[in-house]
Amino acid sequence: MTRFSGELFDGITSRAHPVTATLDDGTLHIEGDGIALAIPLGDVNVAPPVGAARGVVHLPEGRELHSADLAALAQLTQALPARSPERWAHKLESRLVYALAALLVSVVVIFSGLRWGLPAAAQLAAHTLPAGLDARIGKESLALMEKVSLNPSKLAAARRQAIAQRLAEQCRHQACPPHVLLFRDSQMFGANAMALPGGAIVVTDALVKLSRHDDEVLAVIAHELGHVQHRHSLRLALQSIGAGAILVAVTGDIGSVTDLAAGLPSLLLQSGYSRDMEREADAYALAWLGTACIPARRFADILDRLDKNTSGTNLLDSHPGTRERIQPFLAARGCT
Ligand SMILES: [Zn+2]
Known about the structure:
By secondary structure, the chain is α+β, with helices and mostly antiparallel strands. The protein has two domains: 2-79, Pleckstrin-homology domain (PH domain)/Phosphotyrosine-binding domain (PTB) (PH-domain like, Roll); 130-331, no CATH class. It contains twelve helices and eleven strands. The chain has helices at 70-79, 85-128, 131-148, 157-173, 205-210, 214-229, 232-241, 243-250, 257-270, 275-292, 297-308, 322-331, and strands spanning 2-9, 16-24, 27-32, 35-40, 45-47, 55-58, 64-67, 151-152, 180-185, 193-195, 200-204. The strands form two sheets. The protein has a seven-stranded antiparallel beta sheet with strand order 4-3-2-1-7-6-5, with helices on one face. It is rod-shaped and about 105 Å long. The structure holds zinc ion. Zinc ion is lined by residues 223, 227, 273, 278, 281, 319. Residues 223, 227, 273, 278, 281, 319 line the site of zinc ion (ZN).
């Protein structure tokens, strides 16, 4: 017979009740002031003591018996009936189910936040932010890109002027968002075009060389104008930097603009725009080309060629579902 003293906690209040425990014939008897429990050892668990701490005996209904008599607790542990594996498996299983359910809920919440919450917040912020902020981020991004990945264009000035003049002429006939067209040579970007916040549209020499008609370059520029119109690159930047940055931006502390700008070039190249953004930019381009009386097929032609062009990192190449995207351009009929 093992006898030891300890404190009983009833699992409801935090009050400790001094008790004496007796291990006798397969039963743990616990007695104290107004307390008389007889608990079958099958319902008893002993938590191994950690260091010099007191040991804890887990009892049914959330009760706990704490004792510093580690020798007695060791004897109690010895006396406990062998656990049947099924019982443990069941306990473990039910815990696993809870754990997996909790994990699943966490994943769903985080995913929803990133998938829908953040883009929605970024869209809201992008349309709420003052235009000056776009321009500032765009300027910083461009300065950074010119340092590391963009060089002055080597195209013939006449070719650049011809494209720029046609664009300017079109934008006198139809409403274009404020923009600046820039031709740049870039080993890193290959045949590419991109729209920066604030309206800078960068067209690489390789893209112009890949085109077989100035209309094709204009079609790509029209698509980029769509990104400018919808302030996509700013949204992309805000989205990736996260809710914290959005909050900072919305509350007007624009000290972090340089950080936003620094991260943008790699974003435009690596993650690219979402499908929805591409669709918006495509829809814009389709309407723009219709008004300009430029065959919409020109966009499909160059997109198709970009898709097959494997040299260098290609922004348009990474755009989702080229096949699906060019369909409306192939189906479009004449001027609108
Ligand atoms: Zn695009």
